[in-house]
Known about the structure:
Elements: H1 8-25, H2 28-40, H3 42-49, E1 53-54, H4 55-62, H5 69-81, E2 85-90, E3 98-103, H6 105-108, H7 121-127, H8 130-133, H9 139-144, H10 152-156, H11 162-168, H12 170-191, H13 215-223
Antiparallel strand pairs: 1-3, 2-3
Helix pairs in contact: 7-12, 11-12, 12-13
Amino acid sequence: MDFLKGDESSVDELLQAQDHIWNHLFRFISSMSLKCAVELEIPDIIHNHGQSMTISELAWALSIHPTKVHCLRRLMCILVHSGFFTEHDVSCRQSDLEKGYKLTLSLKLLLKDNINLLSARPLLLAVLDPILMKPWQHVSAWFQNDDDDPSAFSIAYYGQTLWDYAAHEPRLNHLFNDAMSSDGLLTASVVLSSKCRGVFAGLKSLVDVGGGLGTMTKLLACKEVRT
């Protein structure tokens, strides 16, 4: 191969290129690991515990089979690397030191029962659901198909749009509405903060276009619109 000339610089470039490819090939592991942790309710378990938890404590709380505990440790390592947990040494009875795990702010937004009602959990579960992941396997086919297919979703689901599919699939309909509602609430809380609040000064009417359940519009109307 032309770029393998035997000199050190070309070898370094080749390794960097391979590293770049691998980084993108396996990037899905981060999002799937996060989904796994949320489905297992690991963030909620640590939050309710009130302090950091070790792998052995988590394994006991999750009723993980002893043969899988080492895999739980690997899962937590991935999520520490991704910035969702912090890791530090804690004293334990069985040994002098063991790794303990705490939540970051990002994971606090993924708690199941968020007392502030600000949660990104429904959005995560919707976006990473197999129904919405499947169309990504058909994007190349969509580019090569005729104009009759409006999206990769329609190829994956035999001509149906997302709205068609959701109309007869209650689970997707529920996932999508929950995701949009929670994301709207989270966004509205930022929009209505002191930094952005002046944008709505003097507003007397508000039109909601394609608002789904209307979560954001209701909040804006309640806080800002004066009629």
